[in-house]
Amino acid sequence: MRRIDFVDTEILRIIQCDGRIASSEIARRVGLVASATAERLRKLERDGILLGVEGRIAPRALSLDLLAFVFVRADEPPGGGSTATELAAIPGVQEVHHVAGEDCYLVKLRTATPASLGTLLRERFGAISTIRSTRTTIVLDTVHESGRLPIPEADEGA
Known about the structure:
It contains five helices and four strands; from the N terminus they run H-H-H-E-H-E-E-H-E. The protein is an alpha+beta fold. The protein has two domains: 6-46, Orthogonal Bundle (Arc Repressor Mutant, subunit A), CATH 1.10.10.10; 59-138, Alpha-Beta Plaits (2-Layer Sandwich). Helix 2 packs across helix 3 (34-46). The longest helix has 13 residues, at 34-46.
């Protein structure tokens, strides 16, 4: 991955705070012309640094009030990954992480109710033949949640 400079860092900070901001406004804030800013944005995407911009939707607006984390143990060869692919395809699954320790995967999911969570675990997780067991933690209240990354300071000379 290429090294990002001070201007790229500032562009990433701006976009991370407001994904809908116009490139002309980004250019104004970082002191570049619009065409140079557009080119930097294109390169950040091309190089896999800027992965896209998503709108955040309030889960409650879609009646997805229940947030749960599911620890999954699976029987598959190291690096198999088919379980992860199947988990990621389940509606409501937001994240699938391959983890170290007793469990193989940590899954973040949202659903409407405890009953719909139970159905999802029985019917969708249960249909994956490699899953040996699951442990589920239901979130009572979210104190802080963010997709923002801590962007390190870059040298202005870089």
